Amino acid sequence: MNSNVLIVGSTALDSIKTPRAENPRLLGGSASHAAVAASFFAPVKLVGVVGEDFPPRYLRFYRERGIDLTGLQFAPGKTFHWAGEYEINMNNRRTLRTELGVLADFNPQLPVSYQHAPYVLLANLAPAVQHHVLRQLRRPRFVVADTMDLWLNVARADLLKLLKHVDGFVLNDSEARQLVKEDNVVLATRRIHRLGPKYVIVKKGEHGAILSSPSGLFVCPAFPLEKVVDPTGAGDSFVGGLLGYLASKGGALETALRRGMIYGTVVASFCCEGFGLQRTARLDRRAIEQRVRQLEKLTRF
Amino acid sequence: MNSNVLIVGSTALDSIKTPRAENPRLLGGSASHAAVAASFFAPVKLVGVVGEDFPPRYLRFYRERGIDLTGLQFAPGKTFHWAGEYEINMNNRRTLRTELGVLADFNPQLPVSYQHAPYVLLANLAPAVQHHVLRQLRRPRFVVADTMDLWLNVARADLLKLLKHVDGFVLNDSEARQLVKEDNVVLATRRIHRLGPKYVIVKKGEHGAILSSPSGLFVCPAFPLEKVVDPTGAGDSFVGGLLGYLASKGGALETALRRGMIYGTVVASFCCEGFGLQRTARLDRRAIEQRVRQLEKLTRF
User: Hey, which of A60, A204, A237, B83 has its CA 20 to 30 A from A269?
Assistant: First the structure.
């Protein structure tokens, strides 16, 4: 069994500053990180939009990873550009510049070959656009939406509408608290279930993640890293890896979800070890399996 | 095999304010929390000092838990009193008042019956006093020291001297960063090993704990709580439960340490569910074992 994963989200150029280095116009965006992470496990169909300045080498890179680009739109104008800066502890991020470019008018149309995708990730993007994609799907098996704090502030109504129609919802702990105004993360997941999603995953960065599902909670560890070079895209890698793993396994969701989160965690940990997708690009399935075994050893009691 | 645990630390009266309630003069202090936590697993010998205002009902409570009070000093004056306030999210604590009382001149002398204790916890106390106790021990099997940020600031030299002579050292993540000026927790544990301790445990509150030992890292989960009433003493309960468990098991340290941290985590989680020692006081071994099994289920993948 190896179903494919449809991933819609932003395809971007990221300029990332950290206390140690500066890297202009890296391949970035929620869909890029998620698609590359998922591609280690299952065939990926990408939906996104890029402008005339999008470097051909990034297209080659997608193709080398076997990512189907039929759903990637090429639009006149500039690719979405994000510039940000990390503080010394790598936990606090400051956006320096956001230039939406062609993303501002992104109106994704699913190719016919995409409409029957069984596993779907609505990676971080305006909730209305995520919803627009969701409406074009024919009986998907499992749909997960990711988000970011921006949408909680400027598109809350759209997000709440979307949540009624997704199976899973992924957000970080501060977003979970903000969304339902509940400080305790366990209680917050309960309230988020009431908004629609059967599966709620709260990401806690270096502290791991929590899954809340009909069969209860799963406390997912993070991989303890000695060196974090650039955490940009770690959350997208996590959920991309998770969806890719689920698609590769099929079968009962409940059982696969826990291991899927572990695989997502491992891909995300590699993502943090290089700028943009630089470390992830050099990954292979063997290195992933090795780190999964390491994580098993690190958490066994 | 059921060796005993010697615990030295503060015995205090705690007045604790939270957004929801106020509780004056509860039984508190690092030694009280640690001793009660350890008492579920092994016989405990307490070393501490109390003043004339120490309520007899607290002495009865220690005795009911089977805690040996031969080493508890009664001094003229007032018991150490701490008053603090928690913010709404229960993570930020503010000290309102600290009255050292009889703790200011605490000069613990170990009864002969205490000097051969195999498992020793130097719970949070001035490092010079911890060291003074350590010097009176005859060939202990395993000595662990706990600390707090205050001592890093006002008694750093004493603490560094002490660390050369303990097997294990427990501190929280912000203290670990501060002690060795390293932001990455994994790298920080490496540097702390170089100060002496073979076993370093970094507590991360609601995010669990990390053990660094000769055989590598152990990532210990926290128990996800729906309601945190009062986290005072959770760290002391954690390390007390850990030492009690180790004493009850004996045998190879490396294997017992991981499970010991899980037991410590579980006792600490109960501690958070009531003010002071109120919830812990109603615990029994069966409830602890049940929550350990729950934690196993919550983390299995």
Answer: A60
The pLDDT tens digits of the residues spanning B97-111 come to: 999 999 999 999 999
Enumerate the residues of chain A whose CB falls inside 8 A of the CB of residue B292: none
Helix and strand counts by DSSP (H, E) for chain A: 11, 13
- For chain B, the 3-state helix, strand and coil shares in percent, each to the nearest 5, are 40, 25, 35
Q: Which residue of B has its CA nearest to A177?
A: B89
Inter-chain touch A184–B225, beta carbons under 8 Å: yes
Q: Contacts of residue A224 in chain B, CB cutoff 8 Å?
A: 185-186, 210, 217, 219
Question: Chain B closest CA to A209's CA: distance in Å?
Answer: 10
Structural domain boundaries enclosing B203? 5-299
pTM of the model: 0.95
**CATH number, domain at B68?**
3.40.1190.20
Q: How many domains does chain A have?
A: 1
Place of tokens 């709620």: A200
Q: Which amino acid is at B292?
A: V
| B219 alpha-carbon distance from chain centroid | 19
Q: Which of A9-13, A82-86, B270-274 has the lowest mean pLDDT?
A: A82-86
Complex ipTM > 0.95 = no
